[in-house]
Amino acid sequence: MQRLADAIATAGVRRLLLMVAGAGDATRTLANIARLGTEVLPPLREVGGPVA
Fold this sequence. Notes:
Elements: H1 2-11, H2 26-48
């Protein structure tokens, strides 16, 4: 997460494309998506404004 925050702050990145692997256990995949939405994106919004 810190590397993404640094890229946003330093390079002025305005859009990110984040991908979650869908292979394997569906429960774990859904947990990863939920974690991305709750633990990764909110702090990134604070660094660079709205994240699309």
